[in-house]
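Methods — Computational structure assignment.
A single polypeptide chain was analysed. Its primary sequence is given first, followed by the predicted tertiary structure written as structure tokens.
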Amino acid sequence: MYYIVSTIFAELGLVKRNKGPHVLRHTFATRQFRAGVPAAVVKTWLGHSTLAVTLSVYEHVAEASGSARPV
């Protein structure tokens, strides 16, 4: 999977230090917060053990979108 994502990034001319599936996961989560999906739902989708884990990684995005409250 890492090779596929890295190859696609290279073909698109995207220069990214950490090119791999994790960047796609982060992009997905960030877009969900920006779309107004509650933090508790994103936590479940990402498989995090606690809401605190999700918010520690995405707190800045969650706060900016108003989704930081566990709903």
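Note: The longest helix spans residues 51-65.
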